[in-house]
Specification:
With 311 residues, the chain is an alpha+beta fold. It is built from six helices and 14 strands.
Amino acid sequence: MDVGAASVVPGGVAGSAGEVGTLGLPGGLPDMPLLLPAVPGSPFPVDVEGAGAPPGIPQHTPEPKLSDIMAEMQKMNLNNQTNFSNLQQQVASQAVAFTAFTADLANLRAEMISEPRFVQLEQEVQKLKQGGLPNKEMHWMQDQINRLDPANKCLALKGITEFDLTKRTAAIDALIRPLGVTPVSIDHVWTGPPGNRKMGPTSLVELSSRTSREAVLKTLGGDKTTKNTDIGPILFTRAQTSMQRKRNSALGAAFDLLKKDPRCRNKIPEIKWKIEGSKNRQVELDGQPIFLQSPGDCSGHFMTPFADLSL
């Protein structure tokens, strides 16, 4: 076809190529812009003068170019690489911290750990936990920390009636030395709010090792043995470890929370410190467990219908 000649459009419309055509119908209707299909075979026309499709008919969206698609894919790939790199750095940082801490633990002996050093180790473990260290490594590390707790070599003397600091310390030292050991340190448990704390009836005696502590208890007659002394009838027992204190605190906090819950109105929850045939501890309501603490768990979890609660 000669592109310069007039072309015939189906429907009786005629015009020159490259020009706006007019309706070639009898009667001489006024000139109207020629609307050509936007895409071959598409029923939606577009104005060749650029005025757009008639109202209500959507404009055709151009297909994206391959180069545009490739550019977007490259951007996504760069973002993924950056995110993966950041994750690798975080994991590597945790691995380095874990390895360094493990090496530190390997160089420590339980007999050498002081209470301040133990507190520092617990804080380091907490930082690793907050950093996302996997549970398997956390459990192993917590076991190592528990082993190093100075409380493992401490005696707890309960029921002391002497509250003069100097006299009490001297009296405890005089009680312990005849048993064949020398106290490493003697500390006293204080109670009450800050600014108004008072010495309580319990003191802690740190010995050189766990073996020494067990030997003293055997000499006295076993754990939880009571002896009459010049400072009162004293109960000699093993000191609670940091983990035991955390577990007891969590169980008590759960009990207090449940006791205040409206669903326990006119009912009193009960702490079960020991359960026959089980190592679990729990809080019960009407004989049913509503908070469970399994062995090695420093917190615990609420059970139905109190599963919405948290410590």
